[in-house]
Design brief:
The protein is α/β, with parallel strands linked by helices. The protein has two domains: 237 residues, 3-Layer(aba) Sandwich (Aspartate Aminotransferase, domain 2), CATH 3.40.640; 102 residues, Aspartate Aminotransferase, domain 1 (Alpha-Beta Complex). Helices cover 35% and strands 17% of the residues. The strands form four sheets. Strands 2-10-9-8-5-3-4 form a seven-stranded mixed beta sheet, with helices on both faces. Strand 3, helix 4 and strand 4 form a beta-alpha-beta unit. It is globular. Bound molecules: pyridoxal-5'-phosphate (PLP). The site of pyridoxal-5'-phosphate has 12 residues, from helix 3.
């Protein structure tokens, strides 16, 4: 197989072990003579996978007992409407830190009053606002902990006077999290915990049942809790790969261990961006994401952008072109991205510098 360094933003690189286990289970699951996608989702064998997956989530994130973990369809984008539908009675507060935050906010407007407590839109979302007041009469406060497109991240678990809801699509399982500070944590699996097709929702059970509207069954968290994520047919194969990905993470030493590795990887690349006169980081230093590292050609070297992309491509780098809304470069260095890939990108930037001296 060709050697590539995969910096895709999502779907993205997954642990080799998880992919391999997937291939095996696709051919013959548990010596059943059937593929994992051919068995009944009501079978004992499948129930065991669901239970293992839930147990891994609980163990790795130390999820308290009054929370439920759900595996749903629809992507993180479905949660943009499911959250307000289930929680918003009068007013909700949102922190506008990027495209995804903005999309979440827009959906909520259909269900009640929405207050934007702060926004960094005017500076192309290159920092996370810190001075703002959360209205105490809001039903909840929504944040996006990692802004995938702009490379900014909220690195700590904040205190909120109202229910705190977090889209953690792109930094879930990258560090230990104090789950008890959140009412809901949700995200698409395809950045750090598996393939596209499954959405995780960690939810404190006592926050439900407070809104007066009718909620369609498929959008009602209570129905999915009651059905243990099998009210309807769950996305079985994505859940299987997610389980394997979490097993890999556990074997690696869990969230403290991966946090250390993530700091090392991001540190390596940011150090090169700061050192190399041809490049410049775009996110405010204190808010730099450990998952998505955004940079551009430094002032005076802008014309080299396309050339660097080609140069990097010829050395096996994949997916480093910045999001179409911001341009430049973005290296996504999620949990499963090996340190060797980050080193290869750093080497590539150094070589490019030599050529252009
Ligand atoms: C990718 C992403 C989404 C969208 O996820 P889908 O599963 O495609 O709906 C939402 N929020 C954040 C922070 C993301 O990175």
């Amino acid at each position: 197989m060709k050697t590539t360094h995969n910096f895709n933003a999502g779907p993205c690189v997954l642990p080799k072990e998880a992919v391999k286990a997937g291939i095996e289970a696709l051919q013959d699951f548990n010596n059943s003579g059937m593929s994992v996608i051919e068995i009944s989702h009501r079978s004992k064998d499948w129930e065991a996978v669901m239970n293992e997956c839930r147990a891994l989530w609980k163990e790795l994130l130390q999820i308290p007992d009054d929370y439920e973990i759900l595996f749903l369809g629809g992507g993180a984008s479905m949660q943009f409407c499911m959250v307000p539908m289930n929680l918003l009675e009068k007013k909700a507060a949102y922190l506008d830190t990027g495209v995804w935050a903005k999309k979440a906010l827009k959906e909520a407007k259909a269900f009640g009053e929405v207050v934007t407590v702060a926004s960094s839109a005017e500076s192309t979302y290159n920092f996370v606002p810190k001075e703002y007041t959360i209205p105490v009469d809001a039903d909840y406060f929504h944040i996006t902990t990692n802004n995938t497109i702009y490379g900014t991240e909220i690195h700590t678990d904040m205190d909120s006077p109202v229910l705190l809801v977090a889209d953690m699509s792109s930094d879930i399982m990258s560090r230990p999290v104090d789950v008890s500070k959140y009412a809901i944590i949700y995200g698409g699996a395809q950045k750090n915990v598996g393939p596209a097709g499954v959405t995780f929702v960690i939810i404190r059970k006592d926050i439900l049942g407070r809104v007066s509207r009718h909620i369609p069954s498929m959008l009602d968290y209570r129905i999915h809790i009651e059905g243990e994520s099998m009210y309807n047919t769950p996305p079985v194969f994505p859940i299987f790969i997610m389980t394997q990905t979490l097993k890999w993470l556990k074997n690696l030493g869990g969230l403290k261990a991966i946090q250390k590795i993530n700091r090392e990887k991001a540190g390596l690349l940011y150090a090169e961006i700061d050192r190399n006169p041809l490049f410049r980081g775009t996110a405010a230093k204190e808010d730099r994401s450990l998952m998505n590292i955004c940079f551009v050609m430094a002032q005076g070297h802008e014309s080299l952008e396309a050339e660097f992309l080609d140069f990097a491509k010829s050395r096996g780098m994949v997916g480093i072109k910045g999001h179409r809304s911001v341009g430049g470069f973005r290296a996504s260095v999620y949990n499963a991205c090996p340190k060797e890939s980050v080193q290869a990108l750093v080497d590539c930037m150094r070589e490019f510098e030599k050529i252009h001296k």
